[in-house]
Amino acid sequence: MRIRATVAAVTGALALSALAAPLAQADSQRAELDRPSVAERFGAPSAKSTSRTGVQAVPTVTAVTVNSATNVVVGTGAKTIKVYVKASHPSGIADAYLDLWHGSDPEYDIDGWLPPNETAASCTASSATTSTCMLTITATPGASGDGVGDLYANILAGTWNVAVGVLANDDEVFYTDFYRTHKVQRASVLTVNAGPEPVKKGATLTVTGKLTRADWATRKYVGLSGQKVALQFRKSGPTSYANVKGITSATGGALKTTYKASYDGYWRFNYSGIASTSAASVAGDYVDVK
Question: pTM value?
Fold first, then answer.
């Protein structure tokens, strides 16, 4: 089985040219690497990797919670993700395994995967048959020496598959590559500055800022243009913001707009995010209106 990087739905010679080099390098790094088998994951002989003939029951997975049921958002540094797997079996639960993988076919078209810690899961029994097992996954941007477990290219952002495995005390195994899906996104960051400060009532207030997002390949934040961003305001006292107007980020992620100053309060930008990129907001900039 070969893990290889693929480019899906990318059009235009320039886009392909820009992606070719990092993907070719990553493909070369990962060419001889395999995801471990179920047996290897549990440190078990191959006979334990599938349900054995004549056995009446295999483990049942009743719940999987990845990153507190929120999107996995990764910036320019490593991020640790907690995963909880709840499972049952008449003999009880000995171990669990989970990884996130990106692609369309676990056998032939895997272009990224994030395994958990390689030690046994920490399993807590709630009864003789049921346990909840905790695992951790570390997502690291950039391509390391062997490429394993790294978010080596920005095209990996988006929808990932959740693979789950459970080992019962009698050595029966349940495993599926397609338990469900989960979002793994590039982190975004906003800045804001409102002025002049103070400003006369009825005068024009200028609000500027910038929208950037993590580039996983270079481990830097880069400007994100062409995105819808909301200018928001809240008066002194209330805790909630209200949308004032919408603008679009310009070249380099630049944000700039104007508004008539009427009340003392806080101004900020808010970004709702897209499939590949997280939502973001920023602490409000206070402006005193005279």
Answer: 0.83
